[in-house]
Amino acid sequence: MHTFTRFILLSLIALLSVSASAAEATQVTVQNAWVRATAPGQKVGAAYMTLTHNQNTTFVGAYADIAGNIEIHSMEMKNNVMKMRMVDELPIVAGKPTTLAPSGLHLMLFDLKKPLKAGENAELTLCFKDKNGVITHQTMTMPIKELER
Ligand SMILES: [Cu+2]
Q1: What is the pLDDT of residues 30-75, one digit of tens each?
Q2: How many domains does the chain have?
Q3: 35 lies in a domain?
Q4: Which residues does 111 contact at the CB level (< 8 Å), separation at least 6?
């Protein structure tokens, strides 16, 4: 291999690994994200996803153009009734996936600006707080889907 070519390749590799580690440090991995389709006139919706990060972080909330307000909710059985509760902060433990799914943790979308139609996408911005209290925002495009029963 020519020295010059090798130099270019090595620089590329160095560049790639630097940007990869920078991304790892700030970006939380969001998998299986989806927003639940709503019926016409329905003003409240929900979004689900699995969050994983390589260091401890805290999920502190979300916002979107499609909703007036978004809260993190948990669900628990109380006297045989499913109760939803608002969660201010959801700790994400390093390396451990945190799953928001139907019948469990979820994002609750209030004051929807339009019906959420299956097959379309919704853009949500997720907010995380690292151990130093620094908040980062991650905007994600999520598919809108019907709940599978
Ligand atoms: Cu809820």
Answers
A1: 999 999 999 989 999 999 999 999 999 999 999 999 999 999 999 9
A2: 1
A3: yes
A4: 43, 67, 68, 69
Residues 92, 109: Cα–Cα separation, whole Å: 21
Q: What is the DSSP string of 11-23?
A: HHHHHHHHHHHHH
**Separate counts of helices (H) and strands (E) for the chain:** 1, 10
Burial of 130 (0-12, 13-18, 19+ CB in 10 A): middle
Residue 1 CA, ligand 1 centroid: distance in Å: 60
Q: Identify whether 114 is part of a domain.
A: yes
| Dist. CA 103 → ligand 1 center (Å) | 9
Q: Report pTM.
A: 0.81
Residue 37 counted as domain residue: yes
